[in-house]
Amino acid sequence: MISRRDFLQTSMAASAILGASSYGQWGRLAAQQALTQDQLLQFDTFGNVSLIHVTDIHAQLKPIYFREPSINLGVGDNKGQVPHVTGADFRKLYGIDDGSASHYALSAGDFNALAQAYGRVGGLDRMATVINAIRAERPDALLLDGGDTWHGSYTCYQTEGQDMVNVMNALKPDAMTFHWEFTLGSDRVNEIVAGLPFAALGQNIFDAEWDEPAELFPPYKFFERGGVKIAVIGQAFPYMPIANPGWMFPEYAFGIRDENMQEMVDEVRGQGAELVVVLSHNGFDVDKKMASIVTGIDVILSGHTHDALPEPVLVGETIIIASGSNGKFVSRVDLDVRDGRMMGFRHKLIPIFSDVIEPDAEVAAVIDEQRAPYMDQLTEVIGQTDSLLYRRGNFNGTWDDLICDALISEREADIALSPGVRWGPSILPGQDITREDIWNVTSMTYGQAYRTEMTGEFLGVVLEDVADNLFNPDPYYQQGGDMVRTGGLGYRIDITKPQGSRITEMTLLKTGEAIDPAKTYQIAGWASVNEGTEGPQIWDVVESHIRKQGTVTVKPNTSVKVVGA
Amino acid sequence: MKLTRRDALVVGAGAFVALGLPLSASAGLGEDAIAAFTGGAEMADGGITLTAPEIAENGNTVPIEVDAPGASEILVLAMGNPTPSVATFKFGPLAASQAASTRIRLAGTQDVVAIAKMADGSFAKASATVKVTIGGCGG
User: Fold this and answer.
1) pTM of the entire structure?
2) Where is each Calcineurin-like phosphoesterase domain found (chain A) (predicted)?
3) Over the stretch B106-116, which tens digit does the pLDDT of each residue have?
4) Chain A partners within 8 Å of B134 (Cβ)
5) Cα dist. A495→A69, A304, A542, B137 in Å?
């Protein structure tokens, strides 16, 4: 990231500077325990266009706890650049006071204590209140959903995404792009998209057979707002058939396709677009690289990597906005567009503090309606936890440690593998664990827990392959997500090395012996992208394990040694 | 416990091991093919566009496209395949454009190279690394 000072100087109008950050102020207010809805929503309407960005909600209809990562390493040119700055370094960078509401919302550290003080975050009924408040000030604001909306909960799984479609329709978005939605299977995605009352965009969603743009997903849509001709171009997650099971949506191909993005930008500019907005599910570093290659994009609303940044990042003349995940944030971006170009902007990342923001009654009723048929299942208490259960971080989190423990014990394996996804809320020490909580961190359409044999050599290949998805120095070769979580296996990783030489010192933890490349090990895991994977569903495995424990305690995990950070 | 995915994984394992590292074992053959095509002449960096995915969705059928305005021939090589030669496209003087697209099979992560022979006898080269992966876990 360019330094704050550079960034402010580069803003295109003096008036744009004012809104760049109000975080220091929040810190003080929060310290006085005086956080109010009015302060969270405070925004001096600017320019003539407003964008509202939500992304990566992962079907979290209700308020949750969500701990941000303490380890999020960048490589290559992105080493030490946002979003690869965490904890105290992050707070220092943005001038956020320790213990403030912004500390709690945006960074790791003192999470348990701050969660007690500030409470839950998110909830689409609260999000609705924020969106309505922005619309009260700017009735024609554009609401844009970055995708990963129809995935991630018990009710979303049971209704094949219908609960999220119904609630989002009540929020009235103007456009959306996609990622996990496709894991509902192409028939279901096609069925929902055909009936959507808003645009389903993706310039990089292609027909796999002919490698031509897919008809159901137009590349862009024009909007006329505040007298400005706005083109919104969609960019779906580029690596869906690789990171997720391609056999579930064989008719579709994706990819970054930045050459086609350039063509689309040129095309909409040729048709008179005065403002070009890309609604992206690329991931932050990929968006930065794309902004440096494709010219003519004013704003990228970035999703996929779940980063929450209190200020836009500027690449050339493009601003990139990152709006977090799991319903925790709404971004408001006001723009001054005149004479066919963006003259200035004002931005605010609004954290949804559930106890501060009043739920919107209408949307709350729609949410309750979706959940009502399943309440007995959702609310059943399976056990308790003594430890904070969270997921985010490059290498491990306590939720996945618990899931790996469950796989090893319930499936009688030497080693467990859990995918490095970034969705899934946190549970505080002392809280009950309900069935809904377990589904929030495991729910998917390919959740079968497999058990198989792998040689030590093959296990090394798997770790190397996943590590390259995360630590390849070229963002275009990164798929987002984090390192595969391992149970019963320790290793050393040098993130600066090339693929094939990052992983060393693989150790079978139960014996302390080095992994033998020629020896075969029993491996349990879940979320295989291979068709025909068999085994019990992961949520049933985890539920059975937690029931046996009664109260779970997750010990600190020191099995991964990280070098080169 | 029953081993349910074993067959699938054993089949997969052979492929994975092959895919672990960028392939260059047959790079010598690729270099030979380039030398034969250009006769050892210098190759310019501009003048030819090679479009290929950064990460292949399916290594068995990777869509690629080459475009070199003014070219009389375009040679396409998969530098890491056991047989690097993929295709040579020839364009007659009346061809409206000097572009072609096809699908190629890649044995693993490797560079795909396209070389255009221009009408004036000069050469231009473009290269793209295509990663063939076992897949990760989406955010």
Assistant:
1) 0.92
2) 51-307
3) 999 999 999 99
4) 461-462, 465
5) 18, 22, 31, 18
